[in-house]
């Protein structure tokens, strides 16, 4: 058994090496990463890449927009090889600023679902996070709230907790609603959500989750990994929070739940293109995908890699198939709509 | 001491002759000022770019609110830091009561606490789902709406928290000013019939005015530039709107115009204060300096004074540290010890280098204004020190643009001349980072340096020059010794500020270069407060080192009299 397993790994990695001459050529090189991911678990993700390829990974981690400004000002001499963001809107913005170059990769095209990558290959989503509702089990009956649109229903007046519109996840969510309903209905929806708020927006996603569990509101809107983090916590008060809440995947009856992506693309002026290509293909390998899944409790994008058990326990769900590029381009308009609706 | 007591210097007699050496010195200072002003000017140039629709949208939606919030925030922070800073400084320097010596340095502790950290700590502790309210509900069986609890998620709350960590700027400068006041001046007031309190109010406070104004200006600018705390508390200000306009809507020109409007507002305030004390001089011509005699307080007054000084320390340091320690105990950073040494070392070296350079630059520029006063120098100083009111991210990008342009120019030139390019020379290196700190924090060092220079009467220079001393000798023998405390204060403030600085560090830093602040912010922005608490505690601990050093130095100075003429 052990023998066959080892042989499979051996054959598999040989096949990968043969299939990706990029990896071979990139030996003994370095890869410069501009990243807005900053999870400790990512260090294993990068060091594994170094182990497999011998390519050392250098990192600068900062907010996405400033990183884009840095790449712009560095111009043709920019040392960046790969840009990683935690949101579709910003990687699409990088493409718009001509900071990325396309990568026509068979491997990536076959492994990553079409709605999670740029149709022209400038960027690829490597993990997804769903924006879900966390509802108080004892106050919100099963099936009482089913969609994002329901958040604006007057029957939830004073029950909804959600963070500021400055937050990019809310901009992308509203961008997806804009794509589904148009500007006028989206503004009416945003006004409805604001009217239903239990308190003015404040804090992060985790704060919304805790507030719903404590009874400050009944329905919180948050990304899945924040809730997953609480389910993995050993602390009694975190366990109590998880005990009180139920995960609702919105819009299962129609377009599906909005998912955002953590995405990466090759920098326009990359000097280590082979290393960059090897890295992107590496991110779609099962072992790298497991780091995304287990490290930060995100959903892997490659078929056959399962999310961690706590996340899988919420059940499978239908994703909104809207291409990330569309809601990404809607971000600015979405923010203006939220401004007009008085969403702080 | 009235304003009329010192004859005003004016005209060509007061202005020293311009020698070649001094001209070179002034040129150097002007170059520094220009370098520092470059990124700010780069931002201000956005005024000339079209930003169609942005302003109409802002006026329709949030503009009135952010102006109101910003003014309110400044009012709270301005009044709060003045009252706490001046009040405590006066109590510990001019009164003697049990514990006053210890309080003298304990009052500096909140300086080591980054604003975003105190914000996170209080927000977490006092939230509806936080430990305090949860315990209350559990103890009394209350539910939501059964009880009243103060809500800190508003301008008042944020203002109060910022006040708690910013008052040390006022305290530090006011205290230094009070210490430098000769008792003779106060005694003169007493012989003229003032009571001890009246002497303070009518002589001590007015004479410390440049220092107090500098401290309050620093606190206000820091409050204006704050993004992390106000954003977390859901309060919309100019800064949050700059971020939203720039990053959310992608309107860089519109964001730059907002930033410029903010700067214009700050310049206006500075101009008002400068005009208000125009033509007044704050130096003393007293020949003899004796440290002020301390007022011994009775038991009742002593306890009141003790409590008044203890409260800001409790609220601004002890309680947030306790909250952080609780978070750390619950789920602190597992990496503690392993690489924190590297983070701490990086932070410490960076802050030390930056502080040395910032203080040198501030001294050079401040000195130029003394040697060559005039509208041009004044304007240069104001523009160079306005960076403190600019949000760190705006500065960082403002620094990247000219550096990148310069780098690419050098690269192209060498490529054309020698066939090989240089690549990036400054961008992505420590130099770029220090440049960013210089732009952002020059004002922090300028405040104490200017206040210190103001206190040295021009008669000293004049007398020394009459006796044949060169400008250089005047600087070495008279100014440097008299300025030592001011320079130390400037260095301490710059050091602690660089240590806490975040956005510029994260954006401009070289590859694989982590500092404590970066670590803390990454964890906090990822909503891992418990883990972030460890790094926050280490920042505070590292920040305490210079605070303790400087208090010891000041204490020693006081013990030995500190002055050659004492």
Fold and architecture overview:
The complex is a heterodimer of chains A (344) and B (566). Residues 1-5 and 11-27 of chain A have low confidence and may be disordered. Chain A has helices spanning 2-19, 21-25, 42-53, 64-74, 88-96, 106-111, 168-181, 183-196, 205-214, 224-232, 236-244, 273-283, 286-296, 309-312, 324-329, 331-340, and strands at 30-35, 56-61, 82-85, 100-101, 124-136, 160-161, 219-223, 245-248, 259-267, 299-300. In chain A, helix 9 packs across helix 11. In chain A, strands 1, 2, 3, 4, 5, 6, 7, 8, 9 and 10 form a 10-stranded mixed beta sheet that branches. Chain A has 344 residues and is an alpha/beta fold. Chain A folds into 2 domains: 2-128 and 261-309, Periplasmic binding protein-like II (D-Maltodextrin-Binding Protein, domain 2); 129-257 and 318-340, Periplasmic binding protein-like II (D-Maltodextrin-Binding Protein, domain 2). Chain B has helices at 11-14, 20-44, 54-60, 63-94, 100-106, 115-126, 131-140, 155-180, 183-191, 196-207, 209-225, 228-232, 238-248, 252-276, 299-331, 340-371, 375-384, 392-418, 430-455, 458-466, 471-500, 503-508, 516-525, 529-559; strands at 95-96, 295-296. With 566 residues, chain B is mostly helical. Chain B has 24 helices and 2 strands. Chain B folds into 2 domains: 13-48 and 333-566, MetI-like fold (Orthogonal Bundle); 58-286 and 299-331, MetI-like (MetI-like fold). Chain B has a two-stranded parallel sheet with strand order 1-2. Classes of the chains: A alpha/beta (344), B mainly alpha (566). At the A-B interface, strand 2, helix 4, helix 9 and helix 16 of A face helix 13, helix 18, helix 22 and helix 23 of B.
């Amino acid at each position: 058994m052990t023998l066959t397993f080892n042989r499979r790994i051996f054959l598999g990695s040989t096949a990968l090496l043969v299939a990706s001459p990029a990896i071979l050529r990139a030996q003994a090189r370095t890869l410069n990463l501009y990243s807005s991911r900053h999870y400790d678990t990512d260090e294993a993700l990068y060091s594994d890449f170094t182990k497999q390829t011998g390519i050392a990974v250098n990192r600068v981690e900062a907010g996405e927009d400033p990183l884009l400004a840095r790449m712009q000002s560095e111009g043709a001499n920019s040392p960046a090889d790969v840009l990683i963001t935690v949101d579709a809107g910003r990687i699409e913005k990088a493409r718009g600023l001509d900071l990325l170059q396309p990568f026509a990769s068979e491997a990536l095209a076959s492994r990553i679902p079409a709605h999670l990558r740029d149709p022209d290959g400038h960027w690829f989503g490597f993990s997804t996070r769903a924006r879900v509702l966390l509802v108080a089990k004892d106050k919100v009956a099963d099936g009482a709230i089913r969609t994002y649109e329901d958040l604006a229903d007057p029957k939830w007046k004073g029950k909804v907790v959600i963070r500021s519109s400055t937050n990019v996840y809310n901009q992308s969510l509203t961008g997806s609603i804009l794509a589904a309903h148009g500007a006028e209905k989206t503004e009416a929806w945003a006004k409805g959500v604001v009217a239903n708020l239990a308190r003015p927006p404040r804090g992060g996603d985790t704060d919304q989750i805790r507030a719903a569990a404590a009874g400050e509101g009944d329905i919180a809107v948050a990304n899945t990994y924040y809730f997953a983090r609480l389910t993995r916590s050993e602390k009694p008060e975190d366990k109590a929070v998880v005990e009180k809440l139920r995960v609702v995947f919105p819009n299962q009856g129609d377009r599906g739940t909005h998912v955002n992506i953590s995405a990466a693309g090759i920098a326009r002026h990359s000097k280590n293109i082979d290393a960059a290509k090897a890295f992107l293909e590496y991110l779609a390998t099962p072992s790298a995908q497991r780091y995304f899944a287990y490290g930060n409790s995100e959903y892997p994008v490659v078929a056959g890699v399962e999310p961690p058990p706590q996340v899988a326990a919420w059940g499978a769900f239908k994703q909104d198939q809207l291409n990330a590029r569309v809601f990404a381009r809607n971000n600015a308009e979405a923010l203006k709509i939220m401004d007009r609706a008085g969403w702080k | 001491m009235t304003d009329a007591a010192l004859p005003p210097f004016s005209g060509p007699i007061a202005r020293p002759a311009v020698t070649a050496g001094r001209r070179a010195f002034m040129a150097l200072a002007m170059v520094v000022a220009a370098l520092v002003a470059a990124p700010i000017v780069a931002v201000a140039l956005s005024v000339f770019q079209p930003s169609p629709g942005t302003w109409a949208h802002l006026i329709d939606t949030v503009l009135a609110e952010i102006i109101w919030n910003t003014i309110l925030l400044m009012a709270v922070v301005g009044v709060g830091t003045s009252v706490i800073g001046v009040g405590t400084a006066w109590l510990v320097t001019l009164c003697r009561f049990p514990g006053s010596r210890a309080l003298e340095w304990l009052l500096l502790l909140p300086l080591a606490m980054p604003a975003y950290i105190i914000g996170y700590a209080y927000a977490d502790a006092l939230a509806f789902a936080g430990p305090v309210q949860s315990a209350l509900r559990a103890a009394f069986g209350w539910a939501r709406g059964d009880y009243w609890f103060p809500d800190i998620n508003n301008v008042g709350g944020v203002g109060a928290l910022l006040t708690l960590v910013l008052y040390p700027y006022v305290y530090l400068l006011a205290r230094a000013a009070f210490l430098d006041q000769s008792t003779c001046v106060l005694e003169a007031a007493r012989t003229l019939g003032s009571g001890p309190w009246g002497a303070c109010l009518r002589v001590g406070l007015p004479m410390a005015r440049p220092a107090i104004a500098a401290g309050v200006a620093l606190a206000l600018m820091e409050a204006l530039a704050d993004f992390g705390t106000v954003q977390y508390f859901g309060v919309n200000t100019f800064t949050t709107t700059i971020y939203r306009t720039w990053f959310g809507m992608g309107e860089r020109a519109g964001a730059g115009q907002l930033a410029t409007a903010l700067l214009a507002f700050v310049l206006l305030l500075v101009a008002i204060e400068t005009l208000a004390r125009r033509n007044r001089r704050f130096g003393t011509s007293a020949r003899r300096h004796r440290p002020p005699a301390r007022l011994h307080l009775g038991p009742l007054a002593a306890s009141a004074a003790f409590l008044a000084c203890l409260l800001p320390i409790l609220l601004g340091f002890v309680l947030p540290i306790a909250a952080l320690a609780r978070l750390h105990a619950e789920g602190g950073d597992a990496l503690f010890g392993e690489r924190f040494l590297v983070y701490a070392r990086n932070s410490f070296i960076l802050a030390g280098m930056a502080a040395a350079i910032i203080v040198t630059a501030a001294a050079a520029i401040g000195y130029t204004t003394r040697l060559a006063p005039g509208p041009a120098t004044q304007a240069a100083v104001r523009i160079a020190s306005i960076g403190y009111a600019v949000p760190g991210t705006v500065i960082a990008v403002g620094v990247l643009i000219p550096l990148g342009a310069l780098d690419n120019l050098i690269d192209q030139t060498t490529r054309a001349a020698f066939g090989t390019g240089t690549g990036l020379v400054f961008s992505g290196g420590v130099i770029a980072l220090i440049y960013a700190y210089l732009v952002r924090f020059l004002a922090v060092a300028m405040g104490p340096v200017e206040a210190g220079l103001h206190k040295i009467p021009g008669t000293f220079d004049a007398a020394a020059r009459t006796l044949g001393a060169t400008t250089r000798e005047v600087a070495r023998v008279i100014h440097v010794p008299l300025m030592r405390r001011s320079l130390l204060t400037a260095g301490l403030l710059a050091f602690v500020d660089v240590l806490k600085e975040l956005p510029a560090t994260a954006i401009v830093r070289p590859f694989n270069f982590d500092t404590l602040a970066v670590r803390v912010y990454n964890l906090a922005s990822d909503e891992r407060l418990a883990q972030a608490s460890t790094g926050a505690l280490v920042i505070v601990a590292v920040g305490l080192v210079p605070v303790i050093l400087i208090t010891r130095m000041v204490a020693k100075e006081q013990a030995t009299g500190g002055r050659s003429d004492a």
